[in-house]
Amino acid sequence: MVRQKIQIKKIDNLTSRQVTFSKRRRGLFKKAQELATLCDAEIALIVFSATGRLYDYSTSSMMQIIQRLKMHSEGSNRFRQILHNQEGGDYNGAASKELTSLTLELKQLNGEELQGLGMSELARLERVVESALGRVVKKKNDMLMSEINKMKTREIQLEEENAMLKQLAECVQNTRNTVELGSSVESITNSDGLGGRSLDDDKSVSDTALKLGLPFAGGDC
User: Fold this and answer.
1) Which of 39, 94, 109, 188 could be stapled to 85 by a disulfide with Cβ–Cβ 3.0 to 4.6 Å?
2) Residue 21 burial (C-beta neighbours within 10 Å; 0-12, 13-18, 19+)
């Protein structure tokens, strides 16, 4: 059966509305987490239910992401102002003023040209620096953990290679010992075959000695 498309409108039944809100909120947060993981995106979600309850999700500090949004909004407002001045025919003056303002802000981020700033401006500057520092530290920690994981993987590989080499060396040594033992047994067997004298040989010598009237070395004189 073809699944009917749900009409998007406010749910009148309160219980159904709460159930749908709960399910879709969890789905929304799950999708946001997947997007952040797959694409290395920085995401912040803020949801208020109909009863006023707050639900939020963020990949890092929520305050840092909000501060970053404010900085982006300020930059967008400045850009719109430049376009407005350009339409008014004062583009060069506005661009020069904007460049001067951005240069001053950059110096202030580096701890320079702080004279004349009030407490609110210094506090705002501190938040901007802390937000940027937080992102730098997070990126550094991520890279550090990645390098540590690579080193651990390499360590495991080296241990496995060392175990294989040790096993191979033991096999070679066992084979060498077996060959040396076989050579020693063969040498002893050949020596016994050349130097030994049987009883039949002794009897033949004894008979010959008696016939000739000679003393027998193996007898009692």
Assistant:
1) 94
2) middle
Q: Specify burial of residue 173 (Cβ count, 10 A radius: 0-12, 13-18, 19+).
A: exposed
pTM score, whole prediction: 0.35
- How do residues 126-156 score in pLDDT, each as one tens digit? 787 787 777 778 888 888 888 898 898 899 9
Q: For the segment 154-176, what is each residue's pLDDT rounded down to a tens digit?
A: 999 899 989 899 888 888 888 88
φ and ψ at 150, to 5 degrees? -65, -40
Mention every residue, 6+ apart, whose C-beta is less than 8 A from residue 82: 91, 94, 95, 98
- Which region, left, alpha or beta, applies to residue 59 given φ > 0 means left and ψ of -120 to 50 means alpha? alpha
The residue to which tokens 């749900």 are assigned: 6
CB 134 within 8 A of CB 63: no
